[in-house]
Design a protein that fits this description.
Layout: H1 2-19, E1 23-30, E2 37-43, E3 49-61, E4 64-79, E5 85-93, E6 98-104, E7 110-116, E8 119-122, E9 125-128, E10 134-140, E11 146-154, E12 159-165, E13 171-177, E14 180-183, E15 186-189, E16 195-201, E17 207-215, E18 220-226, E19 232-238, E20 241-244, E21 247-250, E22 256-262, E23 268-276, E24 281-287, E25 293-299, E26 302-305, E27 308-311, E28 317-323, E29 329-337, E30 342-348, E31 354-360, E32 363-366, E33 369-372, E34 378-384, E35 390-396, E36 403-409, E37 415-422, E38 425-427, E39 430-432, E40 438-446, E41 452-454, E42 459-466, E43 474-480, E44 486-493, E45 500-502, E46 509-511, E47 516-523, E48 529-539, E49 546-556, E50 567-571, E51 574-578, E52 595-601, E53 611-616, E54 620-623, E55 634-640, H2 647-653, H3 660-669
Parallel strand pairs: 42-49
Antiparallel strand pairs: 1-40, 2-3, 3-4, 4-5, 5-8, 6-7, 7-10, 8-9, 10-11, 11-14, 12-13, 13-16, 14-15, 16-17, 17-20, 18-19, 19-22, 20-21, 22-23, 23-26, 24-25, 25-28, 26-27, 28-29, 29-32, 30-31, 31-34, 32-33, 34-35, 36-37, 37-40, 38-39, 41-43, 43-47, 44-46, 44-48, 45-47, 48-49, 50-51, 51-54, ...
């Protein structure tokens, strides 16, 4: 009975998980007036993504514009986990150049492969092709600086289609070559039109080894992945009979899928085929932490994957299959409908789930989920668990041709897709239309999460506030720019006896997607000068779960109010000046002045210059003998509070005859 309840709970838990809504979280685009495509994508441990592909003419990548040197040039871009452009680089020359594969290592370095023609620049490195097109492999650091670039090939057409890295920073590329091609000190000659190559390069760009495979027809590798032990797994297509080391494979139809494994010493471990009488291709491969590999591609008609036979509903259909480290088939799944459907990219996460992308047309089934395209082709992304169960599938695109070429996952289980769109494309509720023809897109999908930001970034500045008074409430708006509820769990100040405070608010507080909440801050300075503290906002956001703002304000002394009822009466030749006692500061707080400064103006203009006459401890002062010759005389009285000012120093600095402005400046300097 307990076992039955446990199983029932587990099944319910799985249903609840699969029912969670997976959304497109953001989508970004780049494009110009010509054809631009994102062809490969990779992620690092921080959730940044790296993209490569091709562009023509001038293309804007966020605020950075790149202009190609000739026809197609290569771009490499880095975006953060929220879709912000970090940097963008270009490579190429006057001919056609393309980036087809990208990988990232634990340090955030990225490795790219593809092809170039003629002379092509990779930062300060120039490569010159030997023939029609040559393979390149290049490395950039996490800041987008070019570290090295290397080439391989010969007089024929040579293409690098995919690249992978291992824990030591070595990289492995795969593709195809024609005729005789040189990889460092190793040369290989194709048996037919095109043959497969797999090559290893160390972290400094030196060729380690190169292997060739194929037969008398057209054979090509389109995907490569490496595991934690440095083994390489490769997939692609072959026709007729093809040799992979000592293993020979023979296709049944026009082209079949091959999957092969090489160990860390580049020795062939095993090779298997899949397919049928139609055209079948392996387009991408990924490995998990157990050394299992997942292959995505397309098949038509009826195709066999080990003991599993699948039949397409129409033209080409999507295939995703899993093999163990020894090359045994674990499962094979298909997706698609009566239209043309193709899988191009596959990635895995730490739990052994896999993510796939490509394109579909019409209505396509992904397990129990049916997707319907708006135009000719639409992008799909989908997730399967380690047993091959479909977890979710979503679509993106518009009324034209839209394709997902590559997919990557991050440590948090989010997936990133790149490819090309034509015209306006919708990614859930997000629409982009970056250019005029085929444009690059990069998009992120997964379970929605909250994002925190505030209307004031960095510093909340209260400016000047009178000492021992409380400022007006300073509102700070907390905004949730994510797609799930943002929960504010706690608000705290860094200093124990802070001059800042937070007006009472009920916590936890929930902020819905795209909504805001205001908190009011107060500043009550007790000591003069600048005061700094930090406000911490504990929350459940994806970006900053402990959001911090600096609080800053300056405590200024509240001077006494100006004395009221300043009068003067003559007593013989002396003027007796009187005024009311001052009991309030300019901040309306109680105050007792230390003394009063008396100023006089002997000009006929009451707004003229006033000069220091003397000081009084009380509310009366005598200006002696003024009646002897003064035709005009005006008086002004100012209450003075020493606070932190040094009276002995003040006595030395202030002397009769100084102007009021001069004395005001001295008083200010001594605060």
């Amino acid at each position: 009975m307990k076992r039955q309840i446990l199983i029932s709970f587990f099944m319910l838990f799985c249903v609840m998980l699969s029912a969670q809504s997976v959304n497109w979280l953001w989508a970004n685009g780049a494009g110009g007036s010509s054809s631009d495509r994102g062809r490969a994508i990779a992620t690092d441990t921080a959730g940044n993504c790296y993209v490569t592909g091709t562009f023509i003419g001038t293309v804007n990548f966020g605020t950075t514009s790149l202009t190609s040197s000739g026809s197609d040039d290569i771009f490499i871009a880095k975006l953060d986990t929220f879709g912000n452009w970090i940097w963008v680089k270009r490579a190429g020359g006057a001919d056609v150049d393309a980036g087809y594969g990208i990988a990232a290592d634990a340090a955030g370095n990225c490795y790219i492969t593809g092809y170039f023609q003629g002379t092509a620049a990779f930062g300060g490195n120039s490569l010159v092709s030997s023939g029609a097109s040559d393979i390149f492999i290049a490395k950039l650091d996490t800041n987008g600086n070019w570290l090295w670039a290397n080439k391989a090939g010969g007089t024929g057409t040579d293409i690098g289609n995919a690249i992978s890295t291992d824990a030591d920073g070595n990289c492995f590329a795969a593709g195809y070559y024609q005729g005789t091609a040189t990889f460092g000190d190793s040369s290989h000659t194709s048996n037919g039109s095109y043959d497969v190559f797999i090559a290893g390069v160390d972290t400094n760009g030196n060729w380690l080894w190169a292997k060739s495979a194929g037969g008398s027809s057209t054979d090509a590798a389109y995907g490569i992945s490496s595991d934690a032990d440095g083994n390489c797994y490769v997939t692609g297509s072959f026709m007729g009979t093809a040799a992979f080391g000592v293993n020979n494979l023979s296709s049944i139809g026009s082209s079949d899928i091959f999957i092969a494994k090489l160990d860390a010493d580049s020795d062939w471990q095993w090779t298997i085929r899949a397919g049928g009488t139609g055209s079948d291709t392996g387009n991408g491969i990924a490995t998990d932490i157990s050394g299992d590999c997942y292959v995505i591609g397309s098949f038509s008609a009826t195709a066999d994957f080990g003991s599993t036979s699948l039949t397409s509903a129409g033209g080409a259909e999507i295939i995703i299959t899993k093999l163990d480290p020894n090359g045994n088939w674990l499962w094979a799944k298909k997706a698609g409908g009566t239209g043309a459907d193709t899988g191009y990219g596959v990635a895995t996460d730490a739990s052994g789930n896999c993510y796939i992308t490509g394109f579909f047309s019409g209505t396509a089934a992904f397990g129990e989920t049916n997707l319907t395209s708006s135009g000719a082709n639409e992008i799909f992304s989908s997730k399967l668990d380690t047993e091959g169960n479909w977890l979710w599938a979503n679509r993106a695109g518009g009324s034209s041709l839209d394709i997902g070429y590559a997919i990557a996952s991050d440590p948090s289980g989010y997936c990133y897709v790149t490819g090309t769109i034509l015209g306006t494309a919708a990614f859930g509720s997000i629409s982009i239309n970056p250019g005029l023809v085929n444009d690059i897109f990069i998009a992120k999908s997964g379970l929605p999460y909250p994002l925190i930001t505030t209307d004031i970034q960095g510093v909340v500045d209260f400016a000047n506030v009178y000492l021992e008074t409380t400022s007006l409430p300073f509102p700070v708006w907390i905004k949730n720019s994510g797609m799930a509820d943002l929960v504010i769990d706690a608000l705290s100040l860094q200093q124990a006896n802070s001059a800042f405070s937070i007006q009472e608010i009920t916590l936890p507080a929930t902020i819905a997607s795209m909504d805001s909440l205001s908190i009011n801050l107060l500043f009550t300075p007790q000591v003069p000068g600048q005061v700094i503290d930090s406000l911490f906002i504990a929350n459940n956001s994806q970006n900053l779960p402990l959001y911090a703002l600096q609080l800053r304000g300056t405590a200024v002394f509240a001077e006494p109010m100006a004395p009221a009822n300043v009068n003067s009466v003559m007593n013989g030749f002396d003027a007796i000046i009187t005024w009311d006692e001052v009991t309030q500061s300019v901040a309306n707080t109680p105050i007792v002045p230390d003394f009063y400064f008396i100023y006089f103006n002997g000009s006929p203009d009451p707004q003229g210059v006033y000069y220091f006459l003397g000081r009084s401890l009380g509310t009366q002062f005598t200006h002696y003998d003024v009646g002897w010759g003064a035709e005009h005389m005006f008086y002004r009285v100012k209450a003075i509070k020493l606070v932190s000012r040094n009276q002995a120093l003040l006595d030395r600095l202030i002397i009769p005859g100084m102007t009021e402005d001069e004395i005001t400046a001295i008083l200010k300097s001594l605060e």
